[in-house]
Amino acid sequence: MATSPNTYRFDFEPWSFWTTATAAEKQDQLDWQAALAAQGQMTFGSQCFISKLAGVFPDSLDMGEGCYIAAHAHVSHTLKMGNHCSINVSAVVRGKVTMGNGVRIGGHTSILGFNHSFKTLDLPIHQQPLTFKGITIGDDVWIGSGVTIVDGVEIGSHSVIGAGAIVTRNIPPYSVAVGNPARVIKNRQKRSPVKQVMGKLKKLKLIWQSS
Ligand SMILES: CC(C)(COP(=O)(O)OP(=O)(O)OC[C@H]1O[C@@H](n2cnc3c(N)ncnc32)[C@H](O)[C@@H]1OP(=O)(O)O)[C@@H](O)C(=O)NCCC(=O)NCCS
């Protein structure tokens, strides 16, 4: 039963757990992780947080250090997370999913590393086998809220996926991708035309000053 307005705060805002929780709350979280790990095939790095309000029923789960899974998230099948990855409120991560370090996932996003096969017309789709290609996400990736990523997709390191995007194809590193289907609208390594001109002017001034 809730005892204060902040009872569920860390479930919905886990990023502040290890800096602000009480010693008793930290011990309770470690006990929860031990209970999950006792089911087998789950490992947790230091300073992870898994909300008791999340549905965490994987075949295999590896969480690096400083990772969290917030309330109402659903995790199943095979998930490997690097360090400092986050799964926010009501996000779904299912199928075969691998994340590097620093992968941050907004609320209500679905990362679906599996499909229902539907090859034959002689069986209902729900009775046909699942297929798993896997989704791979690099390092330092920000995935906004309400994104869907389908099976087989690779997302390159240092990319940003805008809110509401449906990602059906690979996204190269350093991309900003938005929309349905998601399209790359920017490369983070390329400077805008205005910045390029400013850079050239700066360079010219430096040459003029030094001559
Ligand atoms: C993608 C995002 C990061 C902005 O990136 P940006 O490089 O600054 O992009 P800009 O704002 O310059 O927009 C560039 C173009 O993309 C469009 N765009 C931006 N975000 C979009 C989105 N999520 N979906 C569709 N189009 C989008 C803009 O309308 C603009 O189009 P235009 O050139 O026709 O005007 C931001 O819009 C976004 O989606 N953030 C995620 C927010 C979120 O989910 N937060 C949860 C916290 S974890």
Q: CATH H-level name... which superfamily?
A: Hexapeptide repeat proteins
CATH structural fold name? UDP N-Acetylglucosamine Acyltransferase, domain 1
Query: Kindly state the mean pLDDT as a whole number?
Result: 94
Which ligands occur here?
Answer: coenzyme A
Q: Please, how many domains?
A: 1
Characterize the largest beta sheet: strand count, sense, and whether it forms a barrel. Answer: 9 strands, parallel
Give the DSSP E fraction (strand runs of 2 or more residues).
25-35%
Kindly state the number of beta strands.
19
As residue ranges, the low-confidence spans are: none
For this structure, what is the CATH class? Mainly Beta
Roughly how many Å is the radius of gyration? 21 Å
- Helical residues, percent: 10-25%
Distance between the termini: 75 Å
User: What structural category do the secondary elements indicate?
Assistant: alpha/beta
Order of helices and strands: HHHEEEEEEEEEEEEEEEEEEEH
Determine the number of helices (DSSP H or I, runs of at least 4 residues). Answer: 4
Walk me through the structure.
With 211 residues, the protein is α/β, with parallel strands linked by helices. It has a single domain (7-203), classed as UDP N-Acetylglucosamine Acyltransferase, domain 1. Helices cover 19% and strands 32% of the residues. The chain contains 4 helices and 19 strands. It has helices at 9-12, 17-20, 23-37, 193-210; strands at residues 42-44, 49-50, 55-63, 68-69, 74-81, 86-87, 92-99, 103-105, 110-113, 115-116, 130-131, 135-137, 141-143, 148-149, 154-155, 160-161, 166-167, 175-178, 183-187. Strands 1, 3, 5, 7, 9, 12, 14, 15 and 17 form a 9-stranded parallel sheet that branches. Strands 2-4-6-8-13-16-18-19 form an 8-stranded mixed sheet. A two-stranded antiparallel sheet has the order 10-11. Strand 18 (175-178) and strand 19 (183-187) form a beta hairpin. The radius of gyration is 21 Å and the shape is globular. The mean pLDDT is 94. The chain binds coenzyme A (COA).
